[in-house]
Design goal:
Shape: globular
Order of helices and strands: EEEEEEEEEEHHHH
Number of helices: 4
Strand content: 25-35%
Largest sheet: 5 strands, mixed
CATH class of the largest domain: Mainly Beta
CATH architecture of the largest domain: Sandwich
Helix content: 25-40%
Strand order of the largest sheet: 2-1-9-8-5
Radius of gyration: 17 Å
CATH superfamily of the largest domain: F0F1 ATP synthase delta/epsilon subunit, N-terminal
Structural class: alpha+beta
Number of strands: 10
Number of domains: 2
Length: 164
């Protein structure tokens, strides 16, 4: 049985990191998920958050702020695709606040808000990915309606999968 998982992190412009790790915690939309060796194949939509690389002893070896994305786990590999990544120790509170104040768009503002929140000890899930679909329609929608839409979309995906 493998004792490590191959982690690769990519941004739209480059492969940021490739390494073997004991485990990695990814910020999935609904909850953080610890990816261990021999995990069943999975796909996760990632929220803005902190990706953590753990050592054999379970201690955090390194951390990165990531700007949403997607993670695919299969064949003892974890492939993370993200819009942006910053090493945790490379950004101070004052730098993050400055970047938040001068952000050019909502995506960048939300990313630096998450960094500020994390540094203040505030934990929340931003659910940017889910709000994105609602925002595109430019309509107000309740949480119950959103859940209903997601369930309907899942049913369509199931039907399409069965047809394939």
């Amino acid at each position: 049985m493998a004792k490590e998982i191959k982690l690769s992190i990519a941004t739209p412009s480059k492969i940021y990191l490739e390494t073997d790790v004991a485990s990695v915690i990814i910020p999935a939309v609904r909850a953080d998920v610890n990816i261990l060796p021999q995990r069943a194949p999975s796909v996760f939509v990632l929220d803005f958050g902190v990706l953590q690389i753990l050592g054999d002893d379970g201690a955090v070896k390194s951390k990165y702020f990531i700007q949403s994305g997607m993670a695919e786990i299969a064949d003892n590999q974890c492939k993370v695709m993200t819009q942006g990544i910053i090493p945790y120790e490379d950004v101070t509170f004052d730098e993050a606040r400055k970047k938040f104040e001068t952000a050019q768009d909502e995506q960048e503002r939300l990313f630096f808000q998450m960094i500020l929140d994390t540094q203040l000890g505030i934990q929340r899930h931003y659910l940017r990915t889910l709000r994105f679909f609602v925002d595109r329609k430019k309509e107000t929608i309740t949480q119950e309606e959103l859940i209903s839409h997601i369930k309907a979309d899942l049913e369509i995906l199931k039907q399409n999968q069965e047809e394939w």
